């Protein structure tokens, strides 16, 4: 697997978390760096990491069989979940892909099967089902460009997942999927950022830390 040096966290001259313009610039630079490293992974290293991630999802986390699963079509070297999704479909799960139906709005999830015709949609021409068959996911597997120990996600920069998750009631279980070398000290989360419930990398799974409250009794 690729060396983790240089991407374990923000530099000393990072912007303050309240300076949104500076945070956006920092995120854009970090996003470009991490995507480039992800795309440069050697084939055998990528496959080894993917196999561990799929095994962890299948064995270590909440059961996914029978769930309505929103996942993603892999682009730019993202972890490919399709082998696992195909297995889960045989176990009674439903699967759906995100579709951008309006700019700067929540996405919809359209039902996906391996035999289904796809077409390119959205800002990045990502393959999506040709037919609109809405699914409301109970679990969302979200791609990570980067992430931190609080389970906040650095995504592709469009803000679509945050808008979508903010609009969903009840909230699904949200699991971020990515490579361990993209772990950051912090993504400098903003009020609009929504944390994942769990993160899965080739090193295993971890859940979002419990929020600590101050005991004012006595």
Quick one: CATH class?
Answer: Alpha Beta
pLDDT below 50 for ≥5 consecutive residues: which ranges? 1-13, 212-218
Mean pLDDT: 88
Separation of the first and last Cα atoms: 52 Å
Q: Note the overall shape.
A: globular
Helix percent band: 10-25%
The number of distinct β-strands equals 12
Instruction: Strand order, main sheet: write it out.
Output: 3-2-1-6-9-11-12
Predict the CATH topology.
Rossmann fold
The largest sheet is: 7 strands, mixed
Strand content: 15-25%
Question: How many distinct folded domains?
Answer: 1
Could you state the order of secondary-structure elements as H and E?
Answer: HHEHEEEEEEEHEEEE
Determine the structural class based on helices, strands and strand pairing: alpha/beta
The CATH superfamily is known as NagB/RpiA/CoA transferase-like
Structural overview:
By secondary structure, the protein is α/β, with parallel strands linked by helices. The chain has one domain (20-207): NagB/RpiA/CoA transferase-like (Rossmann fold), CATH 3.40.50.10420. It has four helices and twelve strands. It has helices spanning 20-39, 43-59, 82-89, 160-167; strands at residues 68-70, 94-99, 108-111, 118-121, 126-129, 139-143, 146-148, 153-154, 173-177, 183-184, 198-201, 204-207. A seven-stranded mixed β-sheet has the order 3-2-1-6-9-11-12, with helices on one face. It has a three-stranded mixed β-sheet with strand order 8-7-10, with helices on one face. Strand 11 (198-201) and strand 12 form a beta hairpin. The N and C termini lie far apart (52 Å). The model is unreliable at 1-13 and 212-218 (pLDDT under 50).
């Amino acid at each position: 697997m690729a060396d983790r040096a240089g991407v374990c966290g923000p530099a000393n001259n990072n912007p303050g978390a309240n300076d949104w313009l500076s945070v956006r610039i920092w995120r854009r630079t970090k996003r470009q760096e991490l995507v480039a490293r992800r795309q440069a992974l050697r084939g055998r290293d990528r496959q080894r990491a993917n196999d561990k991630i799929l095994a962890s999802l299948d064995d270590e986390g909440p059961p996914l069989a029978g769930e309505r699963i929103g996942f993603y079509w892999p682009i730019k070297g993202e972890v490919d979940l399709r082998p696992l999704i195909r297995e889960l479909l045989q176990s009674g799960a439903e699967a759906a892909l995100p579709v951008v139906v309006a700019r700067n709005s929540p996405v919809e999830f359209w039902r996906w099967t391996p035999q289904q015709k796809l077409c390119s949609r959205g800002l990045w021409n990502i393959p999506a089902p040709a037919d609109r068959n809405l699914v409301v996911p109970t679990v969302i597997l979200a791609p990570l460009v980067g992430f931190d120990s609080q389970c906040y996600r650095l995504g592709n920069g469009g803000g679509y997942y945050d808008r979508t998750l903010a609009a969903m009631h009840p909230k699904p279980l949200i699991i971020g999927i990515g490579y361990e070398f993209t772990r950051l000290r912090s993504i400098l989360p903003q009020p609009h950022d929504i944390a994942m419930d769990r993160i899965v990398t080739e090193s295993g799974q971890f859940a979002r830390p419990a929020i600590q409250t101050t005991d004012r009794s006595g």
